[in-house]
# Entry
Amino acid sequence: MAEQNTSGSTTAGSIEVGTAGAGAQLAGPGTGRAEVRQPIDARVAVKPSYDVTDFPVPTGREEDWRFTPLHRLAGLHDGTAVGAEKGNDKVELGLPDGVTAETVGRDDARIGKAGKPVDRVAAQAYSAFEEALVVTVPQDAVLTEPVKIDVHGEGGVRFAHVVIDVKPFAEAVVVLNHTGTGTRAANVELLVGDGAKLTFVSVQDWDRDAVHAAQQTALIGRDASLKSVVVTFGGDLVRIHPRVTYAATGGEAELYGLYFADAGQHLEHRLQIDHDTPHCRSNVVYKGALQGQDAHAVWVGDVLIRAAAEGTDTYEHNRNLVLTDGARVDSIPNLEIETGEIVGAGHASATGRFDDEQLFYLQARGIPEEEARRLVVRGFFAELVQQIGVAEIHDQLMEKIESELAGVA
# Structure
């Protein structure tokens, strides 16, 4: 893999702006162009709100929306989706012993506890949902099998709200799987109690015509840990916005992501980690592959270390593998530091294509070119998939990667 390496780390007490590590693009193999952009402001500075009117209708010129093809959002950004045909979801739950699931009204005290919407689509989803799904893992429970939430879209427009409430000292794996079609905007709240451990896996395996925008907001308690895994394969346009905040010291967050964009797909992942609490940790690793004309992947990682967050340790890394001509990647890690009393902070971004020497090495040992290319991609993703730590999910993802690789020329 020949990479455009834009790694960078920020020294304590400084703000990284306008360096190669702060933003880089590679417009596909064969172009020879790499464009460096400067971020405007950290998106963590946006004022959260439940009120849609607090967010102007995006024009595409805003930093948060400049990569998103607004005309393909099916009206989620400008309010026209509200009056469209109401859609339905088929939801199937797999609940281990002791885990409960409730359908609650908008006045339930758990709704909004993790945090408010930070853009207009998330605020629209909050304003328009009718009932929320609340899944609770009881205190001290250590689950031996995953909680499964299978959502199958059956067309139309759907606004949804999901709360995963993991009580103190519980340990759980929760898998939220999306299939089917339709236009969906959602807020997902992850409440990780003191001393609890949550692995949350969100899979977007939609039909090719689906549109999906979701804010996933996590609140991590004292000495608690979250492992977030976002996997995106399907859909016409998918925009996922994971956010992490800390309720007390000792919190840890690991954010992993895997995406595979085919011709014409727009897959966008925007992360925000707000370190406003001392002695917390975060680590981000996202990997993507692209193939086909107009395949487009966007990854933006915003990490803010506030003045009060002494003892923070954070790193974020995004890697992209461009498999064919005509694909485009926009990868922008942002790191802002307001205190010098930290353990460490850094970020890196790399985008590139196959390394001809690596392919030659494999072919020289009798491996056909097509199989050699697939081996490279499998190896690219395998280490990340293993980080999930759930055998069932590992096998499912590797099978999906194999089906995507069937289209690699």
